[in-house]
Amino acid sequence: MSDVVSGNDELISKLHKLQTLVPGGTGKAMLAGALVLEGFIKQSMQEGHHGRTYSRGGHAHRASAPGETPAIDFGHLVNSIESSLIDETSSQVATNSEAAPSLEFGTAHVAARPFMRSAADEHEDAVVKAVSKTIVRLVEEATK
């Protein structure tokens, strides 16, 4: 008695299609996670702050207290935060703001106002979910 397997050609075709999607698909998935993290970082900077209020440049500004995310003043820091694809399998959320390291880690004279690492730690599950969801969608598309 011999066993007959049907659908081999279709399965092999789908596997080849999936294989071609893996490099670019991984990058897309990682970028999806980075974009989610970027959103959380920017959102956290807009939330209530408890530092001192002062007037500068004709407008009132409430600063962040030590340990809080930086408060948005003129928007230079928040607008400098961007997600990007590094290569086929990795992405990043970064800022080119000169003030970012001093705010994130603090200085000898100013307490830290962490906003990058704290958001990554707090929202790790949502970032992983975005990556996973994108991978599942790409696999489903490839195996239709």
Describe the SSE topology.
Elements: H1 8-46, E1 53-56, E2 59-62, H2 76-80, E3 81-87, E4 90-95, H3 100-105, H4 117-122, H5 124-142
Antiparallel strand pairs: 1-2, 3-4
Describe this structure in words.
The protein has 144 residues and is of the alpha+beta class. It has one domain (12-142). It is 52% helix and 15% strand. It has a two-stranded antiparallel sheet with strand order 1-2. Strands 3-4 form a two-stranded antiparallel sheet. Strand 3 (81-87) and strand 4 form a beta hairpin. The radius of gyration is 22 Å and the shape is elongated.
Total number of β-strand segments?
4
Question: What level of helicity do the residues show?
Answer: 40-55%
Note the total helix count. 5
Low-confidence stretches: none
Largest sheet: 2 strands, antiparallel
Order of strands, main sheet, comes to: 1-2
The fraction of residues in strands falls at 5-15%
Mean pLDDT: 88
The outline comes out as: elongated
- Please, how many domains? 1
Q: SSE string, helix = H, strand = E?
A: HEEHEEHHH
* N-C termini distance: 33 Å
Question: C-alpha Rg, in Å?
Answer: 22 Å
Notable characteristics:
4 strands, single chain, alpha+beta, two-stranded antiparallel sheet, 5 helices, elongated, 144 residues
Summarize the model shown.
The protein has 144 residues and is α+β, with helices and mostly antiparallel strands.
